[in-house]
């Protein structure tokens, strides 16, 4: 992944962002496997640049223009997002499309155990995640100009079709559990119940920033956002917690949550249902299985880009790709093998 041409970026942003002023320096974040992300330090302040990777990309992937659109639309809502400043669709500036947004100061954790917090503070963090997710799903998409942000029809049917295609396009070896999982998802597709909301698509703690009181003050990484079923976001978060703990698995498997002040899956789902005004606590079996599948498909794409030389972090990409069989097996263990 080529470094930013700082002179080009500085000249371009000076011309397109009011008040922007160099000199400019940039540091690449350690995260951002999909869309490389840079912190820009300028005389006029601190900014964040998100770009598409270079090279051959899967169709519809790395949609930084969609990210820019959705954070622009959410500016007037109670969902906290950075301020969208400029979208550059000219690949000639840095070699790919990119956008710039404001930099939000806040705390961020990759590991949901949040080991530097005490139990009360940890509980506040998880409660704020839950509350913010409900706020997101309550956004009036028509009022913020996002009525056309997703296709009509059964969300899970669309998504299974899309990610199956993406997976097949980046498949590097046959993984029997992935084939079995795809077959199960197709055979057990739930009927469309008519629920539609804005969904984030990657709802987990490392895509959120928190203020000093443990409240979410910025939701990041909207690449997978669309109009869809709100339970997909909730199921995705529960899915992530089934993974091993640590910076790679980023899960809570085997963790004594009660002693840490972290809610159980059931308690977290019940809190969401209460806040959202649902009459029943939802059954997330399909949503969780789908979330395992989609993450496996995403990681397979990361692995393929690493093998092709287009990954932001090639070694990290290969390491993440090794998790594809684990995600597929975990889904089958939960919904098929018991």
From TrEMBL:
Gene3D superfamilies per UniProt: 3.90.1200.10, Phosphorylase Kinase, domain 1 (3.30.200.20)
Residues in Aminoglycoside phosphotransferase domain copies: 30-247
GO molecular function, one term: kinase activity
Protein name: Aminoglycoside phosphotransferase (APT) family kinase protein
Entries under InterPro entries matching the protein: ACAD10-like, ACAD10_11_N, Aminoglycoside_PTrfase, Kinase-like_dom_sf
Keyword Transferase listed: yes
Record key words, sorted: Kinase, Transferase
This protein's record includes keyword Kinase: yes
């Amino acid at each position: 992944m080529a470094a930013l041409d700082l002179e080009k970026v500085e000249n371009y942003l000076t011309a397109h962002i009011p008040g922007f002023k160099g000199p400019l320096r940039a540091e690449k974040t350690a995260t951002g496997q999909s869309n490389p992300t840079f912190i820009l330090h300028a005389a006029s302040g601190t900014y964040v640049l998100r770009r598409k990777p270079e090279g051959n990309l899967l169709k519809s992937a790395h949609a930084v223009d969609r990210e820019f659109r959705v954070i622009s639309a959410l500016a007037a809502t109670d969902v906290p997002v950075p301020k969208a400043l400029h979208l550059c669709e000219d690949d000639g500036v840095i070699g790919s499309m990119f956008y710039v947004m404001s930099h939000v100061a806040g705390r961020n954790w990759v590991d949901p155990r949040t080991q530097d917090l005490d139990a009360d503070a940890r509980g506040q963090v998880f409660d704020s995640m839950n509350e913010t997710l409900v706020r997101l799903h309550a956004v009036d998409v028509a009022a913020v100009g996002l009525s056309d942000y997703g296709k009509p029809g059964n969300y899970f049917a669309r998504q299974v079709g899309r990610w199956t295609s993406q997976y097949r396009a980046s498949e590097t070896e046959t993984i029997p559990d992935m084939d079995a999982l795809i077959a199960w998802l197709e055979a057990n597709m739930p009927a469309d119940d008519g629920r539609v909301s804005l969904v984030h698509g990657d709802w987990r703690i490392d895509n959120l920033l928190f203020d000093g009181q443990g409240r979410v003050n910025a939701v990041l990484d909207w690449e997978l956002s669309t109009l869809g079923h709100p339970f997909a976001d909730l199921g995705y978060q529960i899915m992530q917690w089934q993974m091993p703990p640590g910076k790679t698995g980023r899960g809570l498997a085997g963790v004594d949550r009660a002693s840490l002040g972290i809610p159980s899956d059931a308690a977290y789902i019940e809190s969401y249902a209460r806040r959202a005004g649902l009459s029943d606590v939802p059954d997330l079996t399909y949503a969780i299985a789908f979330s395992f599948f989609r993450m496996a498909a995403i990681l397979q794409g990361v692995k393929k880009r690493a093998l092709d030389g287009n990954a932001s972090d090639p070694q990290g990409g290969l390491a993440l790709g090794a998790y594809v069989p684990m995600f597929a097996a975990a889904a089958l263990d939960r919904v098929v093998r018991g």
